[in-house]
């Protein structure tokens, strides 16, 4: 069996919690002898030679004082994090280090990445921090660590950055993960169905509601996410389709997300068809179910020395780099 994937994480938020707890959950199913075909919620049990639980968390970075200095297994329950507890016994994990708050911090984070032996850096800061995303990408390049961008910030879509990763042989997968069964994949599928069946779209909207810190932030900083969510719908008429990344922060929902969809179309002889739907999901599980594939592809690419973006994962991203 090949060596476990050594993963570093920037941004110890709900996605990190869902990922670490989920990896531990699948490892315990494996130890109980449950066959991979029976594991719930997995697209591919083995990808790039790695099983879902072949992940070793080797470094974590945050700027929240409530998380710095704590082991990953504790930090994932600190601060604003509100992903539920789903497993009892977690491996302790690395102690969370201070992340990048200014350009001067890039070199120290690059050094820490090298020391940790990380192969992949998972970037999951709050949405809207283009500068910070670029600094972490610089640190990854300096340490020759693959970079996976979970956020809508333009890293894989910035041609000069992508070219540097490609030239150096360092993997870069981004931008903005498309959740496992999230509002983008569902909305895109519904709009395609309307068009495939020959109906004429008149108007459509998607409104998302949640109670985690991502939703709190998206209610104030929606622009990069809104643009990326429109990209994810694949060439729709922006005059007819509206997407609201966070229709409001509802603390009662914690890390669950509710999305409402409406599609109004004209059918035979111009008569009206109205479709309304509601989706309710554990928001950060929906991210982890895709992160697990992105990090495994990134690591296998890295081990083969293949730099840049892999089109194999384009469907797992809302705004893939070319
Ligand atoms: P979160 O808000 O729970 O966590 C973000 C973490 O980043 C926090 O711990 C915060 O303290 C930390 N942080 C802020 N500035 C930092 C810095 N300079 N260095 C290091 N850490 C810093 O967010 P999340 O739910 O874990 O999501 C992470 C990202 O993934 C968000 O941008 C989100 O929009 C994106 N995303 C999430 C989903 C999903 O959850 N379904 C889907 C697609 C994209
Ligand atoms: Na999340």
Automatic annotation (TrEMBL):
Residues spanning the signal sequence: none
UniProt xrefs under Gene3D superfamilies: Dihydrodipicolinate Reductase, domain 2, NAD(P)-binding Rossmann-like Domain
UniProt xrefs under InterPro entries: MIPS, Myo-inos-1-P_Synthase_GAPDH, NAD(P)-bd_dom_sf
Domain Myo-inositol-1-phosphate synthase GAPDH-like: 182-284
A biological process term (GO) from this entry: inositol biosynthetic process
SUPFAM superfamilies, sorted: Glyceraldehyde-3-phosphate dehydrogenase-like, C-terminal domain, NAD(P)-binding Rossmann-fold domains
GO molecular function, one term: inositol-3-phosphate synthase activity
Superkingdom of the source species: Bacteria
Xref: PANTHER family: INOSITOL-3-PHOSPHATE SYNTHASE
Name of the protein: Myo-inositol-1-phosphate synthase
């Amino acid at each position: 069996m090949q060596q476990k994937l050594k993963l570093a994480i920037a941004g110890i938020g709900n996605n990190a919690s869902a990922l670490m707890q989920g990896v531990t959950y699948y490892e315990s199913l494996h130890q109980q002898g449950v066959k991979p075909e029976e594991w719930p919620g997995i697209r591919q049990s083995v990808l790039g030679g790695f099983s879902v639980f072949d992940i070793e968390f080797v470094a974590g970075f945050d700027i929240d004082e409530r998380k710095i200095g704590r082991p990953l297994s504790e930090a994932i329950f600190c601060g604003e994090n509100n992903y539920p507890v789903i497993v009892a016994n977690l491996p302790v994990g690395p102690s969370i280090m201070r992340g990048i708050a200014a350009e001067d911090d890039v070199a120290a984070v690059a050094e820490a990445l090298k020391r940790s032996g990380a192969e992949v850096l998972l970037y999951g800061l709050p949405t809207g921090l283009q500068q910070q995303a670029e600094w972490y990408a610089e640190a990854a390049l300096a340490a020759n660590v693959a970079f996976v961008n979970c956020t809508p910030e333009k890293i894989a879509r910035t041609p000069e950055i992508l070219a540097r990763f490609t030239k150096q042989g360092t993997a870069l997968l981004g931008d903005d993960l498309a959740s496992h069964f999230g509002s983008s994949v569902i909305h895109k599928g519904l709009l395609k169905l309307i068009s495939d069946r020959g109906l004429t779209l008149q108007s459509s909207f998607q409104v998302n509601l949640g109670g985690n810190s991502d939703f709190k932030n998206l209610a104030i900083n929606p622009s990069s996410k809104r643009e990326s969510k429109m990209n994810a719908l694949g060439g729709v008429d922006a005059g007819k389709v509206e997407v609201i990344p966070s229709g409001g922060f509802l603390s009662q929902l914690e890390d669950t997300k509710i999305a409402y969809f409406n599609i109004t179309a004209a059918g035979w002889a111009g008569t009206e068809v109205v479709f309304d739907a509601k989706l309710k999901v554990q928001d950060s599980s929906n991210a982890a179910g895709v992160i697990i594939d992105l990090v495994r592809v990134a690591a296998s690419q890295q081990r083969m020395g293949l730099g840049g973006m892999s089109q194999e994962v384009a469907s797992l991203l809302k705004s893939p780099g070319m």
